[in-house]
Amino acid sequence: MGAPAERAGLDRTLGRRLRGAAGLAALAGLAWVARDVPAALGGRLTGARAERAARSPRFRDGTFHNPGGSRSMAGAPDRDLVRELIFGKQKRRPGSAVPLLRPGAAPAADVARELNVVWYGHASALIEIEGHKVLLDPVWSDRCSPSALVGPRRLHEPPVRLDELPPVDAILISHDHYDHLDMATVRALLTTQSAPFLVPLGVGAHLDRWGVPAERIVELDWSESHRVAGLEITATAAQHFSGRGLRRDGTLWSSWVVAGAHRKVFYTGDSGYFDGYAEIGSRHGPFDVTLMQIGAYDRAWPSIHMFPEEAVAAHLDLRGGLLLPVHWATFNLALHDWSEPVDRIWAETKARDVRLAVPRPGERVVVDDPPPVDGWWQAVA
Length: 381
What we know:
This protein is of the alpha/beta class. It has nine helices and 16 strands. The chain has helices at residues 2-33, 37-40, 47-54, 81-87, 183-192, 204-209, 276-284, 308-317, 340-351; strands at 59-60, 63-64, 115-121, 124-129, 132-136, 170-172, 197-200, 217-220, 225-228, 231-236, 255-259, 264-267, 287-293, 320-326, 355-356, 364-366.
């Protein structure tokens, strides 16, 4: 009788040890996966960077502010947003694979008049202007999150690898949210590119923490410009907010003007609709092409992301020529249907006689000869 009881005791002891070992292994695995989360949260403003931020007209009481004082979230008292997020009936993902293209060599053109845009998905794009190249908000990671385990995951792969990008003259960052500023992408660009990072005030603190040399960081307040490779690049106003952890608005957000000798491009970054677009259009326009944020909108946060119809109104305020919509298709960041933003902007541009291009991710748009809008997304929605 003693032997079976002894064996049972040994089995229980072994079971406890195995469970303990499994628990320790799980914790170790989580710690390994989460090892980069503190760094991904970025840096904080200190020293000369903090002093410069404090001198900005947009900075008071320790944070940056929109001129109109808009709130980042208005709320929706008549809706349960969490329940809608989990149980909502919206079709927030494409029904089949998003078609991707690999841009080949740029078409032959008069270099002084060259202007093309390659959209890689979401807000990541390449501007080819007068023989120079400018990369916008590059995010190549699988998730726009500080964690590799949780957070919005890509709905399509990047159409090219980061190391396949051509050499660029400047890398522009509109603000520090994870779907626009990605630590892994920045670190990769340190080795694959030599271009400077042009960022709004304070965002350099994140780049510092990630190992970007000081000589490759150019921080600008609104209306400040920097010349690089024959281009004048200007940080312009936007109506948004910032933050990577619990603290909000410790860094500035911006839109961007990229101007050559003959061609001009405007990129919204993230923004609600506001009267600043007309001012930018008057001061810097007209623009040959505007890259306009159209996705991730909701009436719960009307001040910080534009509805598609507002993006068309902003494009007209800016005195834009061709409208190229961005900030859709790649990450599921709101409650609307996946294809709704582009369906709505197509209808609005037709109603208001605005030229529109809707490229597939990876497709090059020659601004002077854009591809016709063919509704490609409807086949996969």
